[in-house]
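dumping this here before i forget
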Amino acid sequence: MQINGSVALVTGANRGIGLAVAQALVAAGAAKVYAGARRPETVVDDRLVPVRLDVTSAEDIAAAAALAEDVDIVVNNAGTGGIEAQLFTGSLDVAREVMETNVFGPWEIARAFAPVLAANGGGALVNVLSSTSWWAMAGAPAYSASKAAAWSLTNALRLGLAKQNTLVVGVHSGFVDTDFSAAVPADKITAIDLADQIVRALAEDRTEVLADEFTAATRRALAGGIEAVQGITPYKVS
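structure:
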């Protein structure tokens, strides 16, 4: 699709991957980029339009859709890790919060903005997922499960939005060099690199981004069964 002159909305756009995507869209010629954040005052790039947007708030989502009625690109980036949710111990409350943010939030965003995208010619919906769509982490079961569910949701949205000519892009990567994964001893790509790959995928009408070799190898290993998938690791060996 045409990036130059487009109007975009990016969730979780005050830092990390979301900010990099918003800035990459501006650099590619987007006429306006709405930067969604729970605290819009934390959006400090004056090229962006701050929007109060908590993706777990139906009221925020409805207000954002009413405000940003000119968008033709929506990027579902906001997410949470929920590392506190453990596999066999503790409450599942945190895991439920992860599902609300990482699955139901993007689903609500897609529902709210589908009519907006249709009215503006179809446009594109981008879901920022993860290699954990396929590669599970026992130490982060809620995050892994949420990204697997979000991948399935992305595929369903691609089918459901095809009739209105909306491009749906699933973005998968391993660890990205942000605050979220700062303590993880693994090979990482930069948020800028990932953002540039997303913009290129949009420009080339591609439906999937495999942002690094670990992710691409994991995708290929799906045909070999769960043992093949889990045998791949992004972690550095000391």
